Amino acid sequence: MVCFRLSPVPGSGLVLLCLVLGAVSSYALELNLMNAENATCLYAKWQMNFTIRYETASKNYKTVTISDFVNATYNGSFCGDGQNGPRIEVQFGSGFSWTVNFTKQVSTYSIENISFSYDTRDSTTFPDAKAKGVFPVHESVALKIPLDDIFRCSSILTLEKSDVGQHYWDVHVQAFVQNDTVSTKEFLCDKDKTSTTVVPIVPTTLPSPTTTPTPKEKPEVGSYSVKNGSNTCLLARMGLQLNLTQDKVTSIINIIPNTTNSTGSCHPQTALLRLNSHNIKYLDFVFAVKNENRFYLKEVNVSMYLVNGSVFSFANNNLSYWDAPLGSSYMCNKEQTVSVSEAFQINTFDLWVQPFSVIQGNYSTAEECSADSDLNFLIPVAVGVALGFLIIVVFISYMIGRRKSRTGYQSV
Ligand SMILES: *[C@@H]1O[C@H](CO)[C@@H](O)[C@H](O)[C@H]1NC(C)=O
Ligand SMILES: *[C@@H]1O[C@H](CO)[C@@H](O)[C@H](O)[C@H]1NC(C)=O
Ligand SMILES: *[C@@H]1O[C@H](CO)[C@@H](O)[C@H](O)[C@H]1NC(C)=O
Ligand SMILES: *[C@@H]1O[C@H](CO)[C@@H](O)[C@H](O)[C@H]1NC(C)=O
Ligand SMILES: *[C@@H]1O[C@H](CO)[C@@H](O)[C@H](O)[C@H]1NC(C)=O
Ligand SMILES: *[C@@H]1O[C@H](CO)[C@@H](O)[C@H](O)[C@H]1NC(C)=O
Ligand SMILES: *[C@@H]1O[C@H](CO)[C@@H](O)[C@H](O)[C@H]1NC(C)=O
Ligand SMILES: *[C@@H]1O[C@H](CO)[C@@H](O)[C@H](O)[C@H]1NC(C)=O
Ligand SMILES: *[C@@H]1O[C@H](CO)[C@@H](O)[C@H](O)[C@H]1NC(C)=O
Ligand SMILES: *[C@@H]1O[C@H](CO)[C@@H](O)[C@H](O)[C@H]1NC(C)=O
Ligand SMILES: *[C@@H]1O[C@H](CO)[C@@H](O)[C@H](O)[C@H]1NC(C)=O
Ligand SMILES: *[C@@H]1O[C@H](CO)[C@@H](O)[C@H](O)[C@H]1NC(C)=O
């Protein structure tokens, strides 16, 4: 099962299309290893599954497939030191482990072996197994990649040995990452190079100036709230689209309400709405009170994981948006932009917020943004103009009518 990635947000586009196809979405493993200076030394994102054939106590053979890595841990993965090269170690399920080592040559780095081990003592995964114990499988892959290139393989790579089949696809990996920057220069596997009709050359999800898919569609509108005890103290309804520019590459990210959680806090002078999701560590909206009678959006503080494994963080606590009287809510149905910095903007759609004085979980009267109220202001003007025009028409007809009847009189 191959999913087409549509958006730059890991997971979102993937989940969507997999759902559309009615298939089980597969889980991508992702690791962004950092060294002591918090710089990325190794980045990997890939999908895999395993089929294991084992003998049962009744001398039959059973085959199990391992494809659930939701709870995978990466203990033991490390950047490498003087003696050892970098290493990825993954633990999952009940007693599975998977290891790959990287070594460096003059102008290349390589993966020589992949180790996988499974534990048949787990009777849920291996019911009725005849031989109980840990079974390791070593596969030699001998893959050489130029230094500073990222290896990519969308095609399926299969390794088979006796009882174990290993499948890998959608692989992106770079070891010996320089300057904390995952490379955009790809080294393709042979299968990707030759696959002409095998469609799934999935566009790379790593940001590079030529391949930035930009979802232009309006974001879905989500409703968020914050509670203080059992009382709702902050309400927000909005469609959010993030626009961030990094290294001259612009990413447009629509926030998907279904997979976004809200938390926060409410105090008399300040209120916080914090959104988070799998790729947004936090997106904070901080509201404040001014002149004791109005509220406004004072601060936005964001930290999010980008598809290339880096983290984008930014805060600005000197904003002035969404201004309305305390005791009311702020509404703006038109698209509006909150400009947090030159490199980070938030486009809002169908916005309705009330960060203070929420009574019984309901919005109070809304103060509309000028963009909306311009329209509302225009309607009475238009009606007025039309009415005025009508009055003039009626008056003129009356005058004409009167003159006609007067002429009529005179002629008699
Ligand atoms: C690396 O990040 C951790 C946690 O974010 C922090 O505690 C540590 O001080 C950072 N180290 C350096 C050298 O920046
Ligand atoms: C395992 O991966 C292969 C290759 O992508 C795929 O054909 C197969 O359906 C997968 N099996 C499961 C159970 O996900
Ligand atoms: C993953 O971990 C959670 C919480 O520990 C647990 O509830 C869930 O069953 C685990 N999922 C799998 C597939 O092991
Ligand atoms: C991985 O490390 C975490 C914390 O460092 C620990 O809680 C967890 O049990 C470890 N997992 C395995 C499989 O060793
Ligand atoms: C890979 O496996 C071969 C044969 O099993 C072994 O000789 C070699 O040392 C292994 N390489 C690494 C880096 O472990
Ligand atoms: C990776 O390196 C470690 C330590 O050098 C070694 O114990 C392990 O067998 C190696 N694994 C592979 C798959 O080469
Ligand atoms: C890393 O930075 C150094 C010094 O700024 C530069 O000479 C080198 O070319 C950079 N390497 C890569 C791969 O960008
Ligand atoms: C995103 O931001 C860039 C730079 O500020 C701007 O040129 C572009 O029009 C914005 N795109 C959207 C959809 O807001
Ligand atoms: C979000 O959830 C609602 C109801 O829970 C559902 O109707 C809608 O289809 C979901 N949207 C997506 C994109 O999953
Ligand atoms: C709840 O409201 C009280 C009074 O305004 C405030 O002191 C407290 O910090 C609030 N708690 C939270 C979690 O917002
Ligand atoms: C959102 O909250 C629910 C329940 O608290 C939790 O199960 C889920 O993992 C959260 N989702 C995210 C993206 O944090
Ligand atoms: C942004 O939020 C983070 C995490 O809560 C915090 O450490 C940081 O100080 C905040 N930045 C600003 C400018 O408020």
TrEMBL record:
Key words of the record: Autophagy, Cell membrane, Cytoplasmic vesicle, Disulfide bond, Endosome, Glycoprotein, Lysosome, Membrane, Signal, Transmembrane, Transmembrane helix
Domain Lysosome-associated membrane glycoprotein 2-like luminal: 219-358
Region forming the signal peptide: 1-28
Main location: membrane
PROSITE patterns in the record: LAMP_1 (PS00310), LAMP_3 (PS51407)
Subcellular location: Cell membrane; Cytoplasmic vesicle, Autophagosome membrane; Endosome membrane; Lysosome membrane
Ranges for region Disordered: 204-223
Domain of life: Eukaryota
Pfam families according to UniProt: Lamp2-like_luminal, Lamp2_2nd
Bilayer topology annotation: Single-pass type I membrane protein
The keyword Glycoprotein is assigned to this record: yes
Segments traversing the membrane: 377-400
S-S bridge residues: C153-C189, C332-C369
GO biological process terms, semicolon-separated: autophagosome maturation; cellular response to starvation; protein targeting to lysosome involved in chaperone-mediated autophagy
Domain Lysosome-associated membrane glycoprotein 2-like transmembrane, chain residue ranges per copy: 379-410
Composition bias type Low complexity, residue spans: 204-214
InterPro entries linked: Lamp2-like_luminal, Lamp2-like_TM, LAMP_CS, Lysosome-assoc_membr_glycop
Entry's Gene Ontology cellular component terms: autophagosome membrane; late endosome membrane; lysosomal membrane; plasma membrane
PANTHER family from the UniProt entry: LYSOSOME-ASSOCIATED MEMBRANE GLYCOPROTEIN, LYSOSOME-ASSOCIATED MEMBRANE GLYCOPROTEIN 2
Similarity-based family: Belongs to the LAMP family.
Identification of the protein by name: Lysosome-associated membrane glycoprotein 2
Protein species of origin: Phyllostomus discolor (pale spear-nosed bat)
